[in-house]
Design brief:
The chain is α/β, with parallel strands linked by helices. It has helices at residues 9-13, 19-33, 53-65, 82-94, 111-116, 134-141, 184-197, 235-238, 261-272, 278-287, 293-315, 339-350, 376-391, and strands at 40-41, 104-107, 124-129, 146-150, 167-172, 200-204, 228-233, 246-249, 321-323, 328-332, 352-353, 355-356, 367-371. A seven-stranded mixed sheet has the order 2-8-7-6-5-3-4, with helices on both faces. It binds pyridoxal-5'-phosphate.
Length: 393
């Protein structure tokens, strides 16, 4: 017996999700065949932790509160506890961005909202390619018409806005997979385009903490409060990939022709989930406390140093390579290699595991991405091996 109706059309519209699984399968098979070979795991974009003790103390302290009737908490407010919304606003203020705590909406990381956001609007969607695949998956799942802006070396994968059209536009800066942050001039062009055309920018700032001197937030661009929302996450900044906490910033004055976007978002939050766990929100508050800024920055710098080492290794051999403003390095494959062929080559010759660029959309074929979330010493070793491999090509 089967159920009497089909899965929704959305499943058929999402891209085939084979690249990441296939890369994992190939690495597992290689490890089994060569158990004594050292493998440099620069494929997936997951942090390696551990959490800072201050974060764990806040998490466990909040769990203990749940033990007693006086301090027990049930359902959290759908948009987040005030203490965390205030901590987010203060964190933004330290980066020079003024928002009200009520404009910060606590989420369980960035992914859900990035997948869902196009479903909240009656819109077409514009997606630069290559980019984080979740944008296209979400838009396709909800049956949106998608246009891609395919990047290239001529614009260092930072495409200009189109000449016309009205879209929900995903911008990811610093970019996964390209590893570079968009500059102020480029973002100003995008904000101008969005305001002139009645478009909405969804600015994915998951890697904002990797920007040391440059634009971390779309809201540092004049006019962005009328045409943008920002999605951010503690995953990469503070090691929350497993704990799950992020936030969306929705300016209070952002409206469609007839409705407030923040009111609509509140309605969506209230109906679609029951908020983020109290202990996790306390842990996020601790992670955003200014007393942890220096330690957090030190860790981010270590990841960035790894990305820069890989970038230098390739650049010194004359290869086109981008990255360094994030944990990612984006390398053009040597002539004649597809993304998958170069992936196989690096794995078998150097034990280096990367991600084929084709996993990030059409614009990624012919490139590979390295993630430097591995221990710095191991990334440095991989950079040396990479440079030797490229020297011989
Ligand atoms: N945005 C980008 C560009 C990412 O690379 C990721 C995760 O890898 C996310 C958002 C989502 O992260 P999370 O859901 O853990 O906050």
């Amino acid at each position: 017996m089967s159920i009497g109706f089909e899965l929704s059309d959305g499943f058929g519209k999402m891209r085939e999700d084979y690249v990441f699984a296939e890369a994992g399968r190939k690495v597992a098979a290689f490890t089994e065949r060569h158990p004594s070979r050292k493998i440099y795991r620069l494929g997936i974009g997951d942090v390696r932790g551990p959490l800072f003790p201050e974060i764990v103390d806040a998490l466990s302290g909040a769990c203990r509160e749940m033990e007693s009737a006086e301090t027990f908490r049930g359902y959290a407010p759908a948009s987040g506890y005030d203490f965390l919304r205030e901590a987010i606003a203060e964190y933004c203020a330290r980066g020079g961005i003024e928002i009200s705590p009520s404009e910060a909406y606590v989420t369980d990381g960035g992914k859900n909202i990035l997948f869902d956001v196009s479903s909240l609007f009656d819109c077409d969607v514009l997606i630069p390619s290559p980019t984080y695949p979740v944008y296209a998956d979400g838009a396709a799942f909800f049956g949106k018409k998608i246009e891609y802006l395919v990047g290239s070396e001529s614009d260092d994968f930072a495409p200009d806005p189109p000449r016309k059209g009205r879209y929900l536009i995903y911008l990811c800066s610093p970019s996964n997979p390209v590893g570079e942050a968009l500059g102020r001039d480029k973002l100003t062009e995008w904000v101008k385009f969005a305001n002139d055309s009645g478009s909405l920018i969804v600015f994915d700032a998951a890697y904002e903490s990797f920007v040391f001197s440059g634009v971390k937030s779309i809201f540092s661009i004049d006019g962005a409060r009328n045409c943008a929302i920002e999605v951010s996450s503690l995953s990469k900044r503070s090691g929350f990939t497993g704990l799950r906490c992020g936030y969306a910033i929705i300016p209070s004055g952002l409206t469609t022709a007839s409705r407030s976007v923040s009111r609509a978002f509140e309605r969506y939050c209230a109906s679609s989930d029951n908020g983020v766990a109290y202990p996790v929100q306390r842990a996020a508050q601790a992670a955003l406390d200014p007393s942890l800024d220096a330690k957090t920055l030190e860790r981010i710098r270590e990841y960035s140093l790894g990305a820069l080492a890989l970038k230098k290794a390739a650049a010194k051999r004359g290869f086109y390579v981008l990255g360094g403003s994030s944990p990612y390095t984006w390398l053009k494959c040597p002539d004649g290699f597809s993304s998958w062929e170069f992936f196989d080559y690096l794995l078998s010759l150097g034990g280096i595991c990367c991600t084929p660029g084709c996993g990030f959309g059409e614009g990624g074929e012919g490139y590979v991405r390295f993630s430097s979330f591995a221990p710095l010493q191991s990334v440095d070793e991989a950079a040396f091996i990479l440079s030797e491999i490229l020297r011989k090509l």
